[in-house]
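FAQ

Q: What does a record look like?
A: Structure on top, sequence underneath. For example:
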């Protein structure tokens, strides 16, 4: 797996921001679509240190002809790589014990939400933009093997209201955003399910629906990223994490 790190020229590192690329993307995806330039001031000011990692989506989420069970195991292996290997390495490079915020666009947002919702002990923030949070959308409705654990619209409804993660969610800054324009239908559907479930369990996670002109595309994700990052930074400051 390859990881690109983006740090201020001054050496000030800020909070660690883990980027999961959009569908089938590699670690240069975020930079190639102009997002690094879009948040360059946050990097140069030492607000964030960005870490962008490869995906293996082509072997899991995107492999429509592959065996569903195997695809789920590949996704679970990727999840384990992030939480068991990449997270400690990011802390080492960041040189601090600051908790990580994870972000992504499209399928990258799906990954980001899975990581934060499954491990709120490891992730302080989520900025998930235009994700689809139903694994069954990618598997013909099947949740064989590991897919259930990677399908927030299924595991959140089944989480007991007194589960310890509920309290952790309410101490974090988790943001799920979707536009209501072109190519956002499944994102809207699944975000609404999550919003309803969060509300029913007393979970304070920000699910934000943007306008009918807001499409599933990079120009809007750039606007949304710049809009939400200050909320993440304010949250860290209020908790004394920076």
């Amino acid at each position: 797996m390859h990881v690109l790190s983006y740090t201020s020229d001054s050496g000030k590192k800020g909070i660690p921001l883990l980027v999961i690329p959009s569908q089938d993307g590699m670690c240069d995806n975020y930079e190639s679509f102009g997002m690094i330039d879009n948040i360059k001031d946050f990097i140069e000011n030492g607000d964030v240190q960005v870490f962008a990692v490869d995906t293996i989506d082509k072997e899991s989420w995107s492999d429509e002809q592959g065996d569903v069970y195997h695809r789920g195991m590949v996704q679970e292996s990727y999840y384990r790589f992030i939480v068991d290997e990449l997270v400690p390495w990011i802390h080492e490079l960041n040189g601090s014990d600051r908790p990580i915020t994870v972000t992504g666009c499209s399928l990258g947002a799906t990954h980001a939400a899975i990581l934060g919702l499954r491990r709120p002990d490891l992730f302080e923030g989520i900025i998930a933009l235009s994700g689809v949070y139903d694994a069954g959308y990618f598997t013909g409705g099947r949740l064989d093997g590991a897919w259930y654990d990677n399908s927030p619209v299924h595991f959140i409804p089944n989480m007991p209201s007194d589960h310890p993660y509920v309290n952790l969610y309410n101490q974090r800054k988790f943001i799920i955003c979707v536009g209501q324009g072109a190519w956002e239908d499944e994102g809207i559907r699944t975000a609404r399910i999550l919003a309803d479930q969060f509300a029913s369990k007393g979970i304070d996670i920000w699910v934000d629906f943007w306008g009918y002109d807001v499409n599933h595309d990079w120009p809007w994700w750039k606007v949304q990223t710049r809009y939400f990052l200050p909320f993440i930074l304010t949250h860290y400051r209020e908790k004394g994490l920076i």
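Q: Is there anything notable about this one?
A: The mean pLDDT is 97.
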